[in-house]
Design goal:
The structure is a homodimer of 478-residue chains. By secondary structure, the first copy, chain A, is of the alpha+beta class. Chain A has three domains: 260 residues, 2-Layer Sandwich (BirA Bifunctional Protein, domain 2), CATH 3.30.930; 99 residues, 3-Layer(aba) Sandwich (Rossmann fold), CATH 3.40.50; 74 residues, 2-Layer Sandwich (Translation Initiation Factor IF3), CATH 3.30.110.30. In chain A, the strands form five sheets. An eleven-stranded mixed sheet of chain A has the order 3-7-8-14-11-10-9-22-23-21-20, with helices on both faces. A five-stranded mixed sheet of chain A has the order 16-15-17-18-19, sandwiched between helices. The longest helix of chain A is centred in the C-terminal third of the chain and has 26 residues. At the A-B interface, β2, α2, β3, β4 and β5 of A face β2, α2, β3, β4 and β5 of B. β5 of chain A pairs antiparallel with β5 of chain B, so a sheet runs across the interface.
Amino acid sequence: MTERITPRSENYANWYVDVVTQAQLADYSPVKGTMVIRPRGYAIWERMQSALDAMFKETGHQNAYFPLLIPESFIHREAEHVEGFAPELAVVTHGGGEKLEEPLVIRPTSETIIWSMYRKWIQSYRDLPLLINQWANVLRWEKRTRLFLRTTEFLWQEGHTAHETDKEAREETLRMLDVYRTFAEEYMALPVLTGKKSESEKFAGAVDTYAIEAMMQDRRALQAGTSHFLGQNFARAFDVQFQTRESTLDHVWATSWGVSTRLVGALIMAHSDDRGLVLPPRLAPTEVAIVPIFRNQTRDEVLRFASTLREQLSESFRVVLDDDESNSPGWKFAEWELRGVPVRVEIGPRDIEQGTALVARRDTGEKSPVPIAKLSGHIAALLKDIQASLLERARAFRDENTIEPASYDELVAFFADGPGGFAVAPWDGDPATEARVKAETKATIRVLPFDGEERARGRVCIVSGKPATSIAVYSKAY
Amino acid sequence: MTERITPRSENYANWYVDVVTQAQLADYSPVKGTMVIRPRGYAIWERMQSALDAMFKETGHQNAYFPLLIPESFIHREAEHVEGFAPELAVVTHGGGEKLEEPLVIRPTSETIIWSMYRKWIQSYRDLPLLINQWANVLRWEKRTRLFLRTTEFLWQEGHTAHETDKEAREETLRMLDVYRTFAEEYMALPVLTGKKSESEKFAGAVDTYAIEAMMQDRRALQAGTSHFLGQNFARAFDVQFQTRESTLDHVWATSWGVSTRLVGALIMAHSDDRGLVLPPRLAPTEVAIVPIFRNQTRDEVLRFASTLREQLSESFRVVLDDDESNSPGWKFAEWELRGVPVRVEIGPRDIEQGTALVARRDTGEKSPVPIAKLSGHIAALLKDIQASLLERARAFRDENTIEPASYDELVAFFADGPGGFAVAPWDGDPATEARVKAETKATIRVLPFDGEERARGRVCIVSGKPATSIAVYSKAY
């Protein structure tokens, strides 16, 4: 905590790395492109996992585990899949001291190995739907990496479901997108746009890809989760047919959906500030830090009082009492701010005399004295308020930085001097138009909102002037 | 459930595979030596993880995550470590379409990558102890594999701790061994012997390895968990020194300890029977299965009643109501027995009239009518009793199959016609003696009990006739 965090205004990318490393969330590992998730970072991921896992189980999914290594030939079975993933593969050529007959790849995603098993498990409509999720590590060889946001290896969950009908699979795809939206908003305090991806941005092997997209504090977009309708593509590639209710044979319909440790990066980028991490209370491993303030003659009394306070508050909250005597209170304030603990309680001899404690909230920095008797209720309300405020603040920030440009010139200007933000405009649906915008502004289409078609009716594409088929949200992205 | 399970008496190995595959705990994957953990098997692992994770946190450990891939040169830094693991490595030679400058190995265990990070994180005694655990997949190229018990890839936890002193690290090693013993006995209902491993059986790179060893139903031993005192071996290999309280420099003292999905195999082999899985209630994903029994005219009444019952019991237990009408009650009884659900509740029209339900316990097969009003209390007591009975039964079985041979001839005879069991005898501490026993009986030393030295005092080795240094427990093992 003796190091300085680069201010966001000075260099946003350095600020991010400073927060991640100084708050000890992650560290660079000796293998290029990979990272170590340190205990304080992993504790956030554990809270994310636990909330998401409960939501998956509530929607009928079960966890399983499939192998890390996939025969290289499997990746080649689905034409678009191999095109998308072949350049990113890590290949195992030797095992147990011998050269392997067929190279194995480390899973970049598990559709192929999972559908090779589904072939064994699915014979009839009675075996459907099959609703499986896996928590696992995956590996994609990335050229440019960034802690949490893009690393060669990352942790994630991947849901893989099999259904009788097109309709059911499409419903599942959107159900899980909505689970992600709910999680982002209610736990991460992160407002997200939802919608479909354009052809150029969809998952290799999907019919349709849907995403949740968030705006970071530097006004860039971050894709925080995706849900894919895979049609019958993987069922065809792995010959997974089932006996229908009408006793005919049909290929199974599929979805897949995932979020990863990238969410930890999104959380940091969305809420943190120049003093360090800011965590929404629902995902904060520690909700309350108690810092006792004393001199030699008041030491015992204050520590005894603080310790009782810790016990009381622990009944309702995740509490730490920082009674380390080798650091000053000022140092501790800065340290708990760096770590993003939502509420700090300061307690000294005068507070004890007056029957109050000083309560500081991390998000705004506000401090106020609170009667000890009302402390627990006050903190409960404060945590709720912080959770809601962070969401509101992020939503207001996004809205302030979203424009509906009236002309292509305005759109180009918006992205000319920096990240810009979100630009919402009618699009003609032509990949060439999308490519032109990307080439000229570096912005890409993040999502086509669900009501985009309706909103585009009767309007023309802001770039080409041709009739628009949808509204598109353009942004520079991570 | 239409397939037959091979009886244990006919072929124990086939019985095991039948139980695992028919209860749908795991399946063979297309990659040799690896397996798929299916939802019903993974649910057991999740319960194990959750109990163990809480025990690790109670003893002050935090979770983190280190990279899957390790530079090959790291494995070579510790002389014994490389000797032990080099033959089992999977090697990544290509990434992102290019040949790598240095090959990377998939972690067979993570001491090397973790100690390379500890070097960055540990400077002073203030940074110690460092108590980190990771839940991860690891890979060891195995020639002979067996579902759950030995697979090329497996899931596990690995604790890696760093300490100021020899004494503190040794205490940690034994503390975690005791956590494993407690978990095995209290959750898995699996009695275990604890003790030190002989030199030939210890972990590659450890000073001392300790283990928990259990007896399976075929009287073979299974090593269910290990805890290693690593001395300063890895700190030396990775140059991890710290400033002591006396301002001198010293290498850090280390431990590592792990249990894996092998525990699921141990659980099956310890308690299951010819009808399928038998699960101790604390690890059973479902504790109670309700099977309604009805004809057309009683259908609605029985289902309504069963559904109310499910709601009531769900307040205290993990309950499933099997109201699928395409299967007969008899089929369902067999199915829930195969799946190992500890308690089955059968409810039909006559039961409703009489205000009772028929309660069957999985372990003994006993059935008894229980008044509905007393059902919840009865089931709570029954689950406790099943948990305790399974442990007692396994302990009695182990004791019945443990001998203290009076001569080497008796020991040889014990192992001559099959697995034998555990043979407890004084040992002279000589690796040559151990090797001779192994060559002549196929039995190895599983553990040297903690009181082995004391018990051996004044006695002679059963094999060599030389003065004994310890008691040894010999057994054939998985």
